[in-house]
């Protein structure tokens, strides 16, 4: 195997190990620390940038291997149809080996590219899950942080409402008393619209 396919294989092996590490069920605190470090570290960001560049080269290798596999398959179909000379056993084994290597290279680069997409999405989903679990824990344990201010504001509004309601009730009662006195003195009926 050439050096660039050997490096692609090492990248695929590293992706498989990373994927296994991402899906292993760790306790929440450990998972939170690890994913927090991975998502916020500048060193990890630089490494990820370098790996993204290497995936561009793997993509080029994938299209080259795919083209080579199609060309070898076309040559094999042409040889089987009898348009070229009759091959001996060495020619057939050579052709089979070339076809095998071309298919191996396509699968190697294709799986490397596919697993990179899977890793990216798995990492994003895991981060979303951690954030959701944190928010759920905050909601479950009760209000904290900015929510205390909201609750205090609502309690103050409720007290203000109760104060205004008490004032209104006392003013209504006083109005009714004055209206009753007025009715007794004037002998008529005053309009009690405030009831």
Automatic annotation (TrEMBL):
Coiled-coil region: 151-181
Localization of this protein: Endoplasmic reticulum membrane; Membrane
A Pfam entry, by short name: Bap31
Any one biological process term the GO annotation gives: intracellular protein transport
InterPro entries: BAP29/BAP31 (IPR008417), BAP29/BAP31_N (IPR040463)
One GO location term (cellular component): endoplasmic reticulum membrane
Membrane topology type: Multi-pass membrane protein
Entry keyword annotation includes Nucleotide-binding: no
Record domain BAP29/BAP31 transmembrane: where: 1-138
UniProt entry tagged with the keyword Transmembrane helix: yes
Top-level taxon of the source organism: Eukaryota
Job of this protein: May play a role in anterograde transport of membrane proteins from the endoplasmic reticulum to the Golgi.
Entry similarity comment: Belongs to the BCAP29/BCAP31 family.
Protein's UniProt name: Endoplasmic reticulum transmembrane protein
Organism lineage: Eukaryota, Fungi, Dikarya, Basidiomycota, Agaricomycotina
């Amino acid at each position: 195997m050439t050096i660039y396919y050997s490096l692609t294989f090492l990248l695929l092996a590293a992706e498989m190990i990373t994927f296994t590490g991402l899906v292993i069920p760790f306790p929440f605190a450990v998972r939170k620390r690890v994913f927090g470090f991975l998502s916020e570290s500048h060193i990890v960001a630089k490494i990820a940038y370098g790996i993204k560049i290497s995936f561009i080269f793997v993509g080029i290798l994938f299209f080259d291997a795919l083209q080579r596999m199609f060309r070898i398959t076309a040559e094999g179909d042409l040889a089987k149809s009898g348009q070229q000379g009759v091959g001996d056993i060495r020619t057939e084994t050579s052709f089979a080996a070339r076809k095998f290597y071309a298919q191996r290279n396509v699968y190697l680069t294709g799986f490397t590219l596919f697993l990179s997409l899977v890793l990216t999405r798995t990492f994003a989903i895991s981060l979303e899950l951690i954030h959701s679990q944190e928010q759920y824990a905050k909601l479950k344990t009760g209000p904290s942080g900015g929510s205390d201010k909201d609750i205090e504001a609502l309690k103050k509004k409720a007290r203000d409402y109760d104060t205004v309601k008490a004032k209104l009730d006392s003013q209504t009662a006083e109005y009714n008393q004055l209206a009753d006195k007025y009715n007794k003195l004037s002998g008529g009926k005053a309009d009690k619209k405030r009831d």
